[in-house]
Structures are given as structure tokens and as C-alpha cells.
Amino acid sequence: QGVDKIAWDASGERLALSCKRGNEMYHGLIAVYDIRRTPLISKSLIGFIKGPGESSKPLAFSFQNKFKQGPLLSVCWSSGWCCSYPLLNW
């Protein structure tokens, strides 16, 4: 159980993470959080990203720093798909 993979966006305001295999409820999902640091550090769950296909799992993911419209999360899934998710209104 616990966190398997983690990625921060360049602003430090978005956090994406995936869970290890022991947690079947969240296995295969990427949780996206909004992080605030003023005056204290706080987090809010924004939502989950599910990959294409029946049982795809995130193999690797990262935020792209040069996307001007906001956070862009790119994910490579075990199904063979690589997808980019713009988090414009998150």
C-alpha cells in the first residue's frame, strides 16, 4: 500500500500520484490534488484520471512545464497509450 508514483507541476500547485497495488479501490487511477501554501500547506483532491482500456495502469507520468494554458499531465499507460490531460479548469 501507499504511493507508487508522484509528480509536481512547475508551480507547485498541482500534485499527481498513483497508489501501489495493495489498494484495489484506487489502483490504476491517478489522483490529482490542488496544493496551497499560504499561510499553511493544505491539499484538496481535485479528481481522478482513469486510463484508456479496462485495466490500464499508469507506468509513468509527468507535468509539462511549457504548456502556457495551465497544468498539462502526460501519462504512459500499461495499455500502450500515451495521453496528455490539460487541467485547465481544475
TrEMBL record:
It comes from the Eukaryota. GO terms for cellular component: nuclear pore. Signal peptide: none annotated. GO terms for biological process: nucleocytoplasmic transport. This is Aladin. InterPro entries: Aladin. PANTHER family: ALADIN, ALADIN/ADRACALIN/AAAS. Transmembrane segments: none annotated. It comes from Thalictrum thalictroides (Rue-anemone).
